[in-house]
């Protein structure tokens, strides 16, 4: 390998964190030709993990490294979400998690690359798409090993959880999660709720927050949040909460002024 090629591979290795996936398209846009990439793989600097993706030779990767490539190299909003994001922040004490499942969400028009779907990650990645919240809001930076990705902040993550789950046990669990979220910034929650297009999510979120008696709840301006019209029933044999026009599990509505 010539000195210029050696300098180029050294620069690449110095500038990329370990544990991430590299996409062929990103490398080519960075000035690394298809021929050069083939030579790197032949020389065992890198190895393929699927069509259009590679990693350092013998580097250990997990789904975080794949998400890094999707966000930083492909420019998609795909991110750890819902219950997974809540768990990553340590915000769900006393709530059971299946550590073999991770929830990832993206915008309704975003698709996971084939190499990500086919790679044998240690955890099962459950991917959902939705557009009830705008891309990029309510997110936070999550540092993992030597790199950073974006995940849903706790408020957005709970809204995603409520969007994906409406059975009785999930709503009870949603309330248990909400009970731990007593330190929200009201203006940030207000912004999310105003931009959220799911009536179900907004009604359930507000009901659970008020039920948990969080101090930040009283600073929300509910008149600015569009809550739609008509009743919503999310469980069978539940209890009707007139203020939010929703039927919720009896276990979490025991003390509410309500009607069946």
Structure description:
By secondary structure, the protein is an alpha+beta fold. The protein has two domains: 59 residues; 149 residues, no CATH class. Helix content is 37%, strand content 18%. The chain is built from ten helices and twelve strands. A four-stranded mixed beta sheet has the order 9-11-10-12, covered by helices on one side. The protein has a three-stranded antiparallel beta sheet with strand order 1-3-2. Helix 7 packs across helix 10 and helix 8 crosses helix 10. The chain is elongated, with a radius of gyration of 22 Å. The relative contact order is 0.10. The mean pLDDT is 92.
What topology emerges from the helices and strands here?
Blueprint: H1 3-15, E1 22-23, H2 24-29, H3 34-42, E2 46-50, E3 53-56, H4 63-72, E4 79-80, H5 82-88, E5 101-106, H6 114-118, E6 124-129, E7 139-144, E8 147-152, H7 154-164, H8 168-179, H9 186-195, H10 199-211, E9 232-233, E10 239-241, E11 246-248, E12 258-259
Parallel strand pairs: 5-6, 9-11
Antiparallel strand pairs: 1-3, 2-3, 4-5, 7-8, 10-11, 10-12
Helix pairs in contact: 5-7, 7-10, 8-10
Could you provide a short overview of the structure?
With 260 residues, the chain is an alpha+beta fold.
C-alpha geometry: elongated
Our measurement of the CA-to-CA distance between the termini, rounded to an integer number of angstroms, reads 77 Å
Any idea what the radius of gyration is?
22 Å
The helix/strand order is HEHHEEHEHEHEEEHHHHEEEE
**Average predicted local confidence, pLDDT:** 92
Percent of sequence in beta strands? 15-25%
Which percent range fits the helix content? 25-40%
What is the count of β-strands? 12
Largest sheet: 4 strands, mixed
Number of domains: 2
The helix-and-strand class reads alpha+beta
Q: Could you name the ranges where pLDDT drops below 50 across 5 or more consecutive residues?
A: none
Reading side by side through the largest sheet, how are the strands ordered? 9-11-10-12
Tally of helical segments:
10
């Amino acid at each position: 390998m010539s000195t210029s090629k050696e300098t180029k591979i050294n620069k690449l290795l110095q500038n990329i964190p370990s544990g991430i996936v590299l996409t062929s398209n990103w490398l080519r846009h960075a000035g690394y030709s298809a021929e050069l990439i083939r030579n790197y793989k032949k020389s065992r600097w890198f190895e393929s993990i699927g069509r259009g993706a590679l990693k350092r030779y013998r580097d250990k990767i997990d789904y975080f490294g794949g998400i890094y490539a999707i966000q930083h190299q492909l420019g998609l909003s795909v991110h750890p979400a819902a219950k997974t994001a809540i768990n990553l922040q340590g915000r769900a004490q006393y709530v059971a998690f299946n550590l073999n499942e991770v929830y990832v969400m993206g915008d309704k028009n975003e698709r996971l690359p084939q190499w990500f779907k086919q790679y044998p990650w240690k955890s099962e990645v459950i991917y959902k798409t939705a557009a009830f919240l705008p891309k990029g809001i309510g997110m936070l930076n999550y540092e993992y090993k030597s790199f950073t990705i974006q995940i849903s902040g706790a408020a957005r993550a709970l809204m995603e959880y409520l969007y994906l789950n409406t059975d009785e046990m999930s709503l009870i669990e949603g309330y248990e999660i909400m009970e731990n979220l007593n330190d929200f910034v009201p203006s940030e929650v207000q912004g999310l709720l105003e931009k959220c297009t799911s009536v179900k999510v907004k009604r359930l979120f507000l009901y659970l927050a008020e039920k948990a008696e969080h101090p930040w709840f009283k600073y929300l301006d509910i008149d600015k949040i569009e809550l739609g019209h008509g009743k919503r029933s999310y469980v069978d044999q539940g209890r009707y909460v007139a203020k939010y026009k929703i039927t919720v599990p009896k276990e979490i509505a025991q003390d509410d002024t309500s009607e069946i």
